[in-house]
Amino acid sequence: MSNTPTPEADTAAAPARPRFLLREMRSSCATQRIWKWTIPAFAGRLPDGRTYNTCPSAGICKDLCYARSGTFRFSNVLRLHQSNLQYVLDEPEKWEEQMSAELQHARYRPRDSRAHVRVHDSGDYFSVEYLDAWMRIMRSAPEVVFYSYTKEVALFEERVRPAPPDNFHWRYSYGGTQDELIAPGHNHVDVFPDEESLADAGYTSQAPSDLRGAYGPETLGIPANNIAHLKKKQGASTFRALQRAANAEKRERRSKRTGPSSRRPKAD
Ligand code: SF4
Q: Of 144, 203, 215, 230, which is most buried, counting CB atoms within 10 Å of its CB?
């Protein structure tokens, strides 16, 4: 038996890709068919040893993140999300091509309404290239409506807001390191301890339909997921309030380290 490798054996087998990259959202707030694209939340390690961070602007949300506990951590679920991320990282052009081709399928052309795709029910727009790829994909499927919650405020203000795809709705999500860049009047979402506190603050609940993320009013609220240890950690505050407190604490620590500012006001 020869030990000479055959040409086939030399070629690393390309990983099998699923026929459909988008999956149907199964959640009580998905009142009509919504498709979703998911990558793993926040930081982790891929099976091949590479590390990643899909939420570069996560703030206090990373310690209260529903997508970092429960079913999202089941090994088969996490493996699927990581393989989605690996596809984007390793073969970005092929991934984009497959995603654009998939969106031409009849299942994204319902007779009675428009198909909706939520980009990320976990993870975020982690790089300029990835965001740009999504905007090209969106433009390639004008009949489909896309929407996202994101903490990448600076990136969106620079690259999306000036000329967004017509079929894209996005909403800034509090609890990130860029909260202070969310200008008054921007559509946003905050996570509240419960429905009551949300209503008391004058917010509209997202609970009846996730499509409120796309079409809801400027002030949308999400009642905290029913995950006991996360609810306990969140207490009676919103993500926005927790992030504000964390920022203030950080500033305080910094000013103690560096002392009072040495800059003096300039004389007229
Ligand atoms: S940005 Fe979203 S997915 Fe990422 S850690 Fe925060 S809540 Fe989780």
A: 203
Domain of 134 in residue numbering reads as 22-254
Residue whose CA is at the smallest distance from ligand 1 atom 8: 65
The Å distance, Cα 258 to ligand 1 centre, comes to: 31
User: Is 259 part of a structural domain of the chain?
Assistant: no
The number of domains in the chain is: 1
Tens digits of per-residue pLDDT, 94-110? 999 999 999 999 999 99
For the stretch 125-177, pLDDT in tens is: 999 999 999 999 999 999 999 999 999 999 999 999 999 999 999 999 999 99
Residue at 7 is within a domain = no
| pLDDT confidence tier of residue 40, bands split at 50, 70 and 90 | very high
Which of 122, 149, 150, 239 maximizes ligand 1 atoms within 8 Å of its Cβ, making it the mutation to test the pocket? Answer: 122
Are 190 and 221 spatial neighbours (Cβ–Cβ below 8 Å)?
yes
Answer yes or no: is 82 within a domain.
Answer: yes
- pLDDT for 256: 87
Strands 51-53 and 188-192: unpaired
Task: Indicate whether 118 belongs to any domain.
Answer: yes
Q: How many angstroms does the Cα of residue 123 sit away from the middle of ligand 1? A: 6
If one residue of 37, 52, 53, 61 were mutated to test the ligand 1 pocket, choosing by the most ligand atoms within 8 A of its CB, it would be 61
CB of 151 closer than 6 angstroms to any ligand 1 atom: yes
| pTM value surpassing 0.85 | yes
Question: By the 8 A CB rule, do 212 and 204 touch?
Answer: yes
- Report the pLDDT averaged over residues 213-242: 96
Helical packing angle, 128-140 and 92-102, nearest 10°? 30
Give the whole-angstrom CA distance, residue 145 versus residue 165: 10
- The dihedral over CA atoms of 163, 29, 81, 119, expressed in degrees to the nearest 10, equals -10
